[in-house]
Amino acid sequence: MHLVVVGIFLALSTLCSSLDNGLVRTPPMGWMTWERYRCNINCKIDPENCIGELLIKNIADKMVDSGWRDLGYVYISIDDCWSLKKRDSNGRLQPDPDRFPSGIKALADYIHARGLKIGIYADMGNFTCGGYPGTTLDTIKIDADTFASWEVDMLKFDGCYSNSTEKALGYPKMSAALNATGRPILYSCSWPAYEGGLPPKVNYTLLGEICNMWRNYDDIQDSWASVLDIIEWFADNQDALQPAAGPGRWNDPDMLIVGNFGLSYDQSKSQLAIWAMMAAPLIMSNDLRTISEDAKELLQNRLMIAINQDPLGKQGKRIAKSGSLEVWVRELVDEQYAVAVLNKGTDGLPKRFTTSLALLNITKSTFGYKLFDVFDKEFLRTVKPETAFDMSINPSGVVMLFVRPATGRRHHHL
Ligand SMILES: *[C@@H]1O[C@H](CO)[C@@H](O)[C@H](O)[C@H]1NC(C)=O
Ligand SMILES: *[C@@H]1O[C@H](CO)[C@@H](O)[C@H](O)[C@H]1NC(C)=O
Ligand SMILES: *[C@@H]1O[C@H](CO)[C@@H](O)[C@H](O)[C@H]1NC(C)=O
Ligand SMILES: *[C@@H]1O[C@H](CO)[C@@H](O)[C@H](O)[C@H]1NC(C)=O
Ligand SMILES: *[C@@H]1O[C@H](CO)[C@@H](O)[C@H](O)[C@H]1NC(C)=O
């Protein structure tokens, strides 16, 4: 797609200071255990859904066979509760041998053989959130070395059982320790979420220099209320958060719950639309073995993914609110844009909304713009900036548009 190619230039010429490990110039995509599988370690009763190598291998196979990998969903990440409650005699973290009988290195080999990347979890503090051994200042180096020796590609570094002083030392120290291993490892920091997520307590300039992505806010749960709460927090604080994001450094509003139990079809579109507008990591936590065709089609929407992965790497913003409606705009490469109109309302009648590109500050193209509906996957019409157009947005649903400068030529192709 045009959208993706042109911008590589722009992305390279943008001077910004980000963690210099060459990774995630566009937001990472993949899958993670936490939201769906939690700390389920009961493999006797629930062998297919417990945190163990069977689940990870099953999902890795699905990521390949069902087309996820080829769309960019390449990280498969183990969250908390993978280790034994004790370090080994050399002071190293060790996986629970009942649940990971082949060990993490063998699992990494399995995942790499399928063209995927493996993520693991640790916690800056005395214990992980689930009560497993934490990574204290004195064990940062050995843990970074252990993960690199297992050929891990991503580390989520949580922050339970710690304090602000220790975190301020530990998060940069882990960044340096990962770098010193010589292995490029995507570094996801939960640090800001533990400090309220906002300046002055959180220094986003520093985060961009030491982490590839970071959790700013609370954990997502399997409900629309949770998705909405996250959207509102990010929008309300966008002036502090939006400039922090860019190639190699991303705000993380947490996992995609599309395909689970809590969201309707329209709400699923809404989560995906706003995550794409926010240039958020697209990390699913769901069951790819049993996911519905509807949810799969939404998560595999190529235009939604291309917008999320736009190489300019500029996070979008909520530019207007009107009653239950919110209007979001994200600038893309090549003078293209994405627009999302979210209806937070729950009164049953779909809301009509009339706007124009001029009202959205999209005015430069002399031939006007072509509008594409992202979820209906269709070309709508060509408009001049002043042309009024309207749409109908379902309760707790969204309309998402891709806006491309018209060339004067007739052909339009998604
Ligand atoms: C380590 O940091 C240096 C300097 O920022 C960078 O050039 C190098 O690519 C980094 N290496 C890894 C493995 O992250
Ligand atoms: C971590 O454990 C040490 C040693 O037991 C203790 O001094 C420290 O207060 C603990 N830190 C936190 C944040 O609980
Ligand atoms: C913070 O945690 C560190 C490491 O556990 C501990 O040494 C220090 O005393 C704690 N500081 C405060 C203010 O609690
Ligand atoms: C934030 O971090 C940057 C980069 O490390 C540093 O230059 C700046 O002084 C810090 N800002 C504050 C307010 O501490
Ligand atoms: C409109 O867009 C221009 C550049 O495209 C930007 O400089 C300006 O700040 C925008 N205005 C508003 C109100 O967003």
List the helices and strands and how they pair.
Elements: H1 2-13, E1 29-32, H2 34-37, H3 53-65, E2 75-77, H4 103-113, E3 117-123, H5 140-149, E4 154-158, H6 164-180, E5 186-189, H7 191-194, H8 204-210, E6 213-215, H9 224-236, H10 238-241, E7 250-252, H11 265-277, E8 282-284, H12 293-299, H13 302-308, E9 317-322, E10 325-331, E11 337-343, E12 351-355, E13 369-373, E14 378-383, E15 389-393, E16 398-405
Parallel strand pairs: 1-2, 1-8, 2-3, 3-4, 4-5, 5-6, 6-7
Antiparallel strand pairs: 9-10, 10-11, 11-16, 12-15, 13-14, 13-16
Helix pairs in contact: 3-4, 5-6, 11-12, 11-13
Bound molecules: 2-acetamido-2-deoxy-beta-D-glucopyranose (NAG) (5 copies).
The site of one 2-acetamido-2-deoxy-beta-D-glucopyranose has 6 residues, from loops.
Subunit structure: Homodimer.
Enzyme class: hydrolase
Family: Belongs to the glycosyl hydrolase 27 family.
Give an overview of the whole structure.
This protein has 414 residues and is of the alpha/beta class. The protein has 2 domains: 2-308, Alpha-Beta Barrel (TIM Barrel); 317-405, Golgi alpha-mannosidase II (Immunoglobulin-like), CATH 2.60.40.1180. The protein is built from 13 helices and 16 strands. The protein has helices at residues 2-13, 34-37, 53-65, 103-113, 140-149, 164-180, 191-194, 204-210, 224-236, 238-241, 265-277, 293-299, 302-308; strands at residues 29-32, 75-77, 117-123, 154-158, 186-189, 213-215, 250-252, 282-284, 317-322, 325-331, 337-343, 351-355, 369-373, 378-383, 389-393, 398-405. An 8-stranded parallel β-sheet has the order 7-6-5-4-3-2-1-8. The longest helix is centred in the middle third of the chain and has 17 residues, at 164-180. The chain is globular and about 70 Å long. The protein starts with a helix and ends in a 9-residue tail after the last strand. The model is unreliable at 1-15 (pLDDT under 50). One 2-acetamido-2-deoxy-beta-D-glucopyranose (NAG) binds at residues 126, 161-163.
